[in-house]
């Protein structure tokens, strides 16, 4: 399949997705619009997490904490006299700042230690919120959050939020795509394949990791800010540990290191989650059943994806399109050896770095 045909198919898919996105809020019921908005919010979060996991090679089990920090920032500021729009803008900034401070010591950890470190951030968040009741409302939460306004435009209905969320989704995916194709993006691709190899080529590994970690938190923060205005109420129950696990599963299912994978994974897992909640909330059923059922199904999905489609749905689709087309190779000379970089210019898959014959 020629690259020209690939580009045409991509253009057609983008246009079709845009038209569907514009039409759906007009056709969906209020309940389904809420699910539609949730898919958009999760896509924003997962886009940042995919950059972190797929390019910087860092696993985060605490992304729901940053989602919650953005939500609480927007809620607290709007309830203390700040304009809701200013509060929304402040949500990703405050979240990114906290992530930056947390990331300086945290990103010194590697592998499983880093994953458990991010999980600890989530647990600390859930422990602090009830203790700061004067600001956060404690376990009861905060209510009567003002409606969001953008200039003279009031954002009040579910349809309004659907359009707002998907405008932010498009902007987020655009930013993520440009990052992956920029010089920093190439450095992140190199890090995902080999940290030592990337360092040998001049990539400032620690600085890139911290920037990527901060950006992924900012994405979660803006999603959290929109969420709190959409719901109008916030409590720590909205940000459980299982939500962070869901975000990771969305990344893996959609395709680690792919921009479109964020949308595919978020949509698929959110719909499955809603189906499982419907099945587990019938009469005479235990209250914990939806959570138990969700975790069991997520485990099966994760095992099947890792076993059958390790590059995720979008990664598998990209490989199918590129089948039979070898990637162009650009040799780089490092220390008397050739460091071969397989370019991923026409795909969203991370670059592959391999050390080949001595020169």
Describe it.
- The chain has 359 residues and is mainly alpha-helical.
- It has one domain: ABC transporter involved in vitamin B12 uptake, BtuC (Orthogonal Bundle).
- It contains 14 helices and 5 strands.
- It has helices at residues 3-27, 30-54, 63-79, 84-106, 111-131, 133-136, 158-180, 183-193, 195-200, 205-231, 241-254, 259-280, 289-308, 312-321, and strands at 148-150, 153-155, 329-334, 337-342, 352-358.
- The strands form 2 sheets. A 3-stranded antiparallel β-sheet has the order 3-4-5, covered by helices on one side. Strands 1-2 form a two-stranded antiparallel sheet.
- A hairpin with a 2-residue loop joins strand 3 and strand 4 (337-342).
- Helix 4 packs antiparallel against helix 10 (205-231).
- It is globular, with a radius of gyration of 21 Å.
- It starts with a helix and ends with a strand.
CATH domain class? Mainly Alpha
Radius of gyration: 21 Å
Number of helices: 14
How many E strands? 5
Q: What's the arrangement of strands in the largest beta sheet?
A: 3-4-5
Report the span from N to C terminus: 35 Å
Mean pLDDT, nearest integer? 82
Helix content: 55-70%
Biggest sheet descriptor: 3 strands, antiparallel
Count of individual domains: 1
CATH-assigned fold name: ABC transporter involved in vitamin B12 uptake, BtuC
CATH architecture term: Orthogonal Bundle
Structural class: mainly alpha
Order of helices and strands: HHHHHHEEHHHHHHHHEEE
Give the overall shape, derived from the CA principal axes: globular
Strand content: 5-15%
Low-confidence stretches: 327-359
